[in-house]
Design brief:
With about 110 residues, the protein is mainly alpha-helical. The protein has 7 helices and 2 strands; from the N terminus they run αβαβααααα.
Length: about 110
């Protein structure tokens, strides 16, 4: 982040920050970080999808991407509700995948 500022990125503007959930990136973008972020922070949706799919057996992968993509097209409240419903469904058969889906829901929808 410091290198971006050294190369001319204005640090006094608001930016939409899209991250993969890395604590290091979150720290660099945080209120005490290099950019002292005041703009929105969003979790990278493709990374979130991959995290869920990695924990599912191959035969159970087909519906989850479609459901997650559909949820992201909804308003934040409706999208989170859709993900919670999908999480409950996954929890029954695939408990390892279900918690990953709801990590940072406020950051998935901004």
């Amino acid at each position: 982040m410091r290198r971006l500022i050294e190369r001319g990125l204005p640090a006094d503007r608001q930016y939409l920050s899209v991250i993969d959930g890395s604590k290091t990136l979150r720290s660099a973008l945080g209120h005490r970080g290099v950019l002292r972020r005041t703009g929105p922070l969003q979790r990278h949706r493709v990374h979130k999808q991959r995290n869920v799919l990695e924990r599912l057996p191959r035969e159970s992968v087909s519906q989850s991407p479609s459901i997650m993509k559909a949820a992201c097209k909804l308003s934040a409240d409706n999208g989170i509700t859709k993900l919670k419903t999908h999480t409950a469904w996954l929890k029954a058969d695939h408990p390892d995948a279900s918690p990953t889906l709801l990590v940072g829901p406020g950051e998935t929808f901004w």
